[in-house]
Amino acid sequence: MGLLKHLGKHLILELWGCDSKALDDQKGIEKMLIDAVKACGATLICVKTHKFSPQGVTGVAVLAESHISIHTWPELGYAAIDVFTCGEHVNPEDALPTIKSFLKPSNFEVIDIKRGNIVD
Q1: Closest Cα to residue 96, out of 19, 24, 27, 14?
Q2: Strands, E, within 29-77: which ranges?
Q3: 66 catalytic, yes or no?
Q4: What is the rounded CA–CA span in Å between residue 6 and residue 115?
Q5: For the whole model, what pTM was predicted?
Q6: How far apart are CA 116 and CA 111, in angstroms?
Q7: Fewest CB within a 10 Å sphere: which of 69, 86, 98, 110?
C-alpha cells in the first residue's frame, strides 16, 4: 500500500475583531493579496477586487496554483479568507503573517483541509 498524498491545501480563515478601516480599504486589500501571494511562493495571474456600498470589499488573487479570496464585513469586524494552493513549492501558511499584519484580527481561526487525497 502506498503513501497518502494530497494535491492541494485549502486554508479557510475566520478573522474576527479586525481593523474596520482595513476591511473597507479596497487598495489595501489588493496589496495584501499580492503580498500574501509573494509570501507563500505562488505565481500570481491576476487580482480583482470590488468595493461595496456602503461598505465591504471582496477580492480574489487568481494563482497558477489556485487562489486566495477574501470577503469582508467592516461593520462586524469580520473577514472570510480562503488560501487554496497546490504544488510542492507553495506553502499557504506563509501567507498568514501578511494577512494578520494588515487586518489585525483579535481572533484568528484556521481550518486546514487537504484537497485531492490520493494514494501514491
Answers
A1: 14
A2: 44-51, 57-63, 66-73
A3: yes
A4: 6
A5: 0.92
A6: 16
A7: 110
**Stretch 17-39: mean pLDDT:** 98
Q: With bands split at pLDDT 50, 70 and 90, how would you rate the model's confidence at 69?
A: very high
On average, the pLDDT of the chain sits at 94
Catalytic residue among 71, 89, 101, 106: 71
Which position has the grid cell 470577503? 71
Domains annotated for the chain, with CATH where assigned, are 4-119 (3.60.90.10)
Classify 98 as helix, strand or coil.
Answer: helix
The pLDDT of residue 35 is: 98
Pick from 25, 21, 22, 43: which is nearest to 34 by CA? 43
Neighbouring C-beta atoms of residue 27, cutoff 10 Å: 10
* CA separation for the pair 23, 89 (Å, rounded): 30
Q: How far apart are CA 87 and CA 98, in angstroms?
A: 21
Number of other residues whose CB lies within 10 A of the CB of residue 3: 7
Reply yes or no on whether the pLDDT at 4 is more than 70: no
Quote the pLDDT of residue 55: 97
Q: Which of 6, 53, 66, 69 is catalytic?
A: 66
